[in-house]
Amino acid sequence: MKKLSMTSQKIGFTAATALLAACLPLSAAAGTSGDYQGAMPNKGQYNVIFHLDAGGVPAIKKTLNNIENILHDPRLAGKLHVELIANSKGFDVYVKNNGFEDKLKHLQAEGVILAQCANTLKELHVDRNDLYPFISIVPSGMGEITIREAQGWAYIHPSAPPEQL
């Protein structure tokens, strides 16, 4: 094993000390005293796409609750655009008579774009008429996510609740 010279050791120690010193103000600003109120918005507009690819009530509820929570974050009031893209088993969120119609209509009334992947409908043999009529169909869920991310949209993919993993 190669021995480090005293100079190399001192440079390493100095660099580590400088890095630690640079991080201390950041941790203090992050509210170590309990006064941190969260990140402050510095943009005029925020865009986020939620991805739902798991079916079942727990996964749907979790995703819709996440959307509701972000819509009611006071820091983002009047600055937020939201889209929900469903693909794979996530199409369950848009199936008629699933118990989510009122919630989806409410989210749409708040400006949320509700989109379904056409590829999923074809691959899983789902009839468009089995979905709520107010849902938009996009050619590809992955294409939608790719385009939105390239446009600068944040991507959120809530994990399925533990009982579904």
From TrEMBL:
Record's keyword annotation contains Signal: yes
SUPFAM superfamilies on file: DsrEFH-like (SSF75169)
Tree of life domain: Bacteria
UniProt cross-references to InterPro entries, sorted A to Z: DsrEFH-like
Record flagged with keyword Signal: yes
Signal peptide bounds: 1-28
Keywords recorded for this protein, A-Z: Signal
PANTHER family to which the protein is assigned, alphabetical: BLR3518 PROTEIN (PTHR37691)
The name this protein goes by in its record: Uncharacterized protein
Phylogenetic lineage: Bacteria, Pseudomonadati, Pseudomonadota, Betaproteobacteria, Nitrosomonadales
